[in-house]
Amino acid sequence: MHIVDGALSNPVVIAGAALTIGGLAQGLRKLPMEKIPVAGVLSATFFVASLIHVPVGPSSVHLIMNGLAGLVLGWAAFPALFVGLLLQAVFFGFGGLTVLGVNTLLIAGPSVLVGLLIRPRVQGAAPRPAAIWAAIAGGLAIALTTVFVALALAITGDEFLPAAKLVFFAHAPVMFVEAMLTGAAVYLAKQVKPELFDDFQGALQ
Amino acid sequence: MIRPAILALSLAIAPLPALAHKLIMGIFPSGNQIEGELGFSSGDAPEGQLIEVFDKAGDKLGETVTDADGFFLFTPSEPVSHRFRADMGAGHVAERVMLAEEVAPIVAKSNGSAAATISWTDKPVAAAQPETSASAPAVTATTPQVVPQVVVAALNQAELDAIAKAVRDETRPLRQEIAAYKEKNDLQTILGGIGYIVGLFGFGFYIAARRKLKDAA
What we know:
Oligomer: heterodimer
Distance between the termini of chain B: 51 Å
Radius of gyration of chain A: 16 Å
CATH topology of chain A: Arp2/3 complex 21 kDa subunit ARPC3
CATH superfamily of the largest domain in chain B: Immunoglobulins
Number of helices of chain B: 5
Largest sheet of chain A: 2 strands, antiparallel
CATH topology of the largest domain in chain B: Immunoglobulin-like
Helix content of chain B: 25-40%
Keywords (chain B): Membrane, Transmembrane, Transmembrane helix
CATH architecture of chain A: Orthogonal Bundle
Strand order of the largest sheet of chain B: 4-3-6-7
Strand order of the largest sheet of chain A: 1-2
CATH class of the largest domain in chain B: Mainly Beta
Subcellular location (chain A): Cell membrane
Protein name (chain B): Nickel transport protein
Distance between the termini of chain A: 28 Å
Protein name (chain A): Cobalt/nickel transport system permease protein
Helix content of chain A: over 70%
Strand content of chain B: 15-25%
Number of domains of chain B: 2
Shape of chain A: globular
Transmembrane segments (chain B): 190-209
Number of strands of chain B: 7
CATH architecture of the largest domain in chain B: Sandwich
Largest sheet of chain B: 4 strands, antiparallel
Shape of chain B: elongated
Strand content of chain A: under 5%
Number of helices of chain A: 8
Structural class of chain B: alpha+beta
C-alpha cells in the first residue's frame, strides 16, 4: 500500500516524516553489525514483493512482507523497509518522495509492533508453534498497515470507517497469503537456521 | 507433510505479477478544449470520475467527468495555468498541470480572435527532372515517375480542425501505449534496485566493521 504525493494533507505528511526519522534513528541503534546482512536481504524481499500485484476491484494490492521483517529485525525493520520504499519511489514512482515518511511509518510501524509483540513467542518455540505465531504476525502486520493507512486518510479528510473498510477488505487476500508465506518462511528458518531469531546484543529490547 | 502443503497452498494463491495500480493522468490541447485521459496503469479506465480543475491559487475553475474510456474534456475560459485533479479516494490521486502559456492559444481559439486561417500551398515537386546522375540511371529512365500532384490549397478553419482531430484520434493508442510503457517495471530496473540495496547494506556493514575494528585496536 503506497499513498501517493498529494493525497495527504501537509500536517500528516510532516508528522509522518518526523516519526519516521525517530523510527530510523531507533532502528539504526538497534541494528547490530551481525544483523546488517539480514536487514539487506529483507529489504530486498520487500522491494521485490511489492512488485507482485493482485487486482482487486477497481484497484490492486500487492504483497508487503513487513510481518516477516518485523519478526526477524524488530526495530531494525525501520531502516530496512525505508530503503526498499525509497528505491521504489525513485525507480517505479510508487508513492513519492514527499510522502516517503508517511509510507515508511505505515509499513514499518506495524512491522515493529508485530516484532515487539510476537517475536519473543517465536524465539523459543518449536518450529510448528513458531510457524503458527509467524502466520498470525504476517496477517496482523498487514491488518495494522491497512488501519494505519485508513487513519492517515481519515486525518486528511476521508471518512474513517468507509476508507478503513475499503482498504481492509481489499487487503484480505494479501493478509491470507502473507500469513501463509510468513508461516512457511519461519517454519523453514526454524529448522534450518534457528539462530536467525536470536538476539544479538540487544537487537530488540 | 504440513510444510509442503502450506508452501504449495501459498504458492498456488500467490498471484501472478500484474501491472502496478498507479492512477495516471495525461492532458493535451484539443482544438479549443483541453482533452485528458485518466486511467490505472493496469489499463482500466474509471468511468464517471469527477475531475476538478483549479488555477494556480487553488481556486476552482470548474469540473468535468470521464467517459467510459477514461477521457475527459474541459473548455478553458481564462488563459491561466490549469491544474487537473482526480481523487478516487483511498489514496488514489492524480494531478496534472497545464501551464498558462499552453492554455492561452486554446482560449484564443475558442474566442476566435487569433483564429486566422493558417493556409499553405505546397508547390508540386518538380517531377520529371531528368536524372542524369550516375546512380542507377537505367531504372529511373525507364519507369516514369508518378508524383502525386497534391495541391494543398488554403484550408479553412473547419478543415484544419478536422485534420487535427483525425491526427489526435490516430495517435491516441500511441499515447496510451507510451503512458503504459512509462509505468512498466522491467527486470533491469528491479535488478538495479536490488543492486542498490546490496550496495547500501554492504556500505553500512563496512562502516560497522570499521568501527568494531577500531574499538578492538
